[in-house]
């Protein structure tokens, strides 16, 4: 029964996708995953620049957790293999949390394609045509994560980013306490809403890995940061064993 419901959702989402992008086809691979394949033909616009996306073949692989989790996507024509492509051949559409945030606003195949996939190919074609990226480009690793969270939280301090990430990594939201961003407002009145929104999109372990990546970057930049949370986390993990 559960599988029937899941398949019905997938087929309905695919029908909506195919109505807008007729070249797409739905099938299952040898592992039982549902896969959408076909040529993506679309048009996208940014700051009065319109670019057509054509002659691009993609493959969307849906996990058993779809639609709770977004698909992964590969470009199978070989056009973008040197452009933000992971070692496994999947496209790097942004930081994992950023892709999840965008997807959860419209958790469908159409939402994923129009929210993340088309902007990826728009940026690729824009770069080829104008020599620069239209939306800017995040750095890789810890620096990229820091830049993303600084923009998401609208703060500039790396230490303040760590303060907010610690709440997410510990699942320790207490709205009456002062917000770590230094605004002197309570968390509930400041960054509480965005923390509640994104807390459901990653596990506490994922948020901890983001915390550690930013922590390591700041340490390499000789920013003095307390190790108290890392020590606490290490002790907790030992007790779990």
Q: Can you give a write-up of this model?
A:
It is built from eight helices and four strands, in the order H-E-E-E-E-H-H-H-H-H-H-H. The chain has about 240 residues and is of the alpha+beta class. It folds into two domains: about 1-130, Roll (Ubiquitin Conjugating Enzyme); about 140-240, no CATH class. Strands 1-2-3-4 form a four-stranded antiparallel β-sheet. It is globular, with a radius of gyration of 20 Å.
Report a brief summary of the structure:
The chain is an alpha+beta fold and 241 residues long.
The run of helices and strands is HEEEEHHHHHHH
What is the molecular shape?
globular
Write down the CATH class of the largest domain: Alpha Beta
The CATH topology of the largest domain is Ubiquitin Conjugating Enzyme
Can you give the mean pLDDT? 90
Q: Quote the distance from N terminus to C terminus.
A: 37 Å
The strand line-up of the biggest sheet is 1-2-3-4
Largest sheet: 4 strands, antiparallel
* Spatial extent as radius of gyration: 20 Å
Work out the count of structural domains: 2
Oligomeric assembly: single chain
Structural class: alpha+beta
Number of helix segments?
8
Q: What proportion of the residues is helical, as a percent range?
A: 40-55%
**CATH architecture assignment of the largest domain:** Roll
DSSP strand tally: 4
Low-pLDDT ranges:
none
Strand fraction: 5-15%
């Amino acid at each position: 029964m559960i599988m029937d419901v899941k398949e019905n959702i997938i087929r309905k989402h695919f029908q909506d996708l195919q109505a807008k992008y007729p070249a797409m086809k739905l099938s299952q691979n040898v592992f039982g995953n549902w896969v959408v394949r076909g040529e993506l033909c679309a048009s996208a616009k940014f700051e009065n620049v319109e670019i057509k996306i054509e002659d691009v073949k993609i493959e969307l692989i849906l996990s058993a957790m779809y639609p709770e989790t977004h698909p992964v996507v590969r470009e199978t024509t070989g056009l973008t293999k040197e452009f933000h492509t992971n070692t496994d051949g999947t496209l790097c559409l942004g930081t994992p949390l950023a892709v999840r945030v965008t997807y959860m606003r419209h958790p469908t195949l159409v939402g994923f394609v129009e929210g993340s996939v088309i902007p990826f190919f728009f940026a690729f074609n824009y770069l080829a045509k104008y020599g620069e990226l239209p939306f800017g480009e995040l750095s890789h690793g810890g620096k990229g994560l820091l830049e993303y969270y600084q923009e998401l939280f609208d703060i500039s301090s790396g230490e303040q980013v760590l303060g907010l990430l610690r709440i997410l990594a510990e699942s320790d939201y207490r709205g009456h306490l002062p917000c770590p961003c230094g605004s002197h407002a309570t968390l509930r009145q400041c960054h509480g809403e965005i923390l509640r929104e994104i807390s459901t999109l990653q596990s506490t372990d994922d948020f901890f890995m983001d915390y550690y990546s930013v922590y390591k970057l700041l340490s390499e930049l000789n920013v003095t940061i307390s190790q108290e949370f890392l020590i606490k986390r290490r002790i907790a993990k030992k007790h779990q064993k």
